[in-house]
Design brief:
The chain has 103 residues and is an all-beta fold. It is built from no helices and eight strands. Strands 2-1-5-6 form a four-stranded antiparallel sheet, with no helix packed on it. Strands 3-8-7-4 form a four-stranded antiparallel sheet, with no helix packed on it. It is elongated.
């Protein structure tokens, strides 16, 4: 069982071959294109573990972009008492769904 820890969008993800992950939107990549993750922090293959300092050299994790979408809507409310101030707005984070193919 191969396992890898990758970094994308300032966050770290633990992935295996065949996994589908939701990460922050990748600019310049459309659906069906291949994606290479160069920031590999750890690769484990059974008892053999390669730990980077901070990155594992000459290793990549590849996958295919399945879908660009938006996440759930977050409602943000601001309120200040005794001043009749209130404000409500929402935010939907753009996300990308990637299927990991090769570690």
């Amino acid at each position: 069982m191969k396992l890898a820890v990758i970094e994308s969008g300032g966050k770290q993800y633990t992935v295996q071959e065949g996994d589908t992950i939701s990460i922050e939107k990748l600019d310049g990549v459309s659906e069906g294109d291949s994606v290479n993750f160069d920031n590999v922090l750890l690769i484990a293959d059974g008892d053999k573990v390669s730990l980077g300092n901070p990155l594992v050299k000459d290793k990549k994790v590849s996958g295919v972009l399945k879908e660009n979408k938006k996440g759930e809507k977050l409602h943000v409310r601001q309120f200040r008492s005794k001043s009749r101030y209130h404000r409500t707005y929402g935010h939907r984070q753009p996300l990308a769904t990637v299927e990991i193919q090769k570690i």
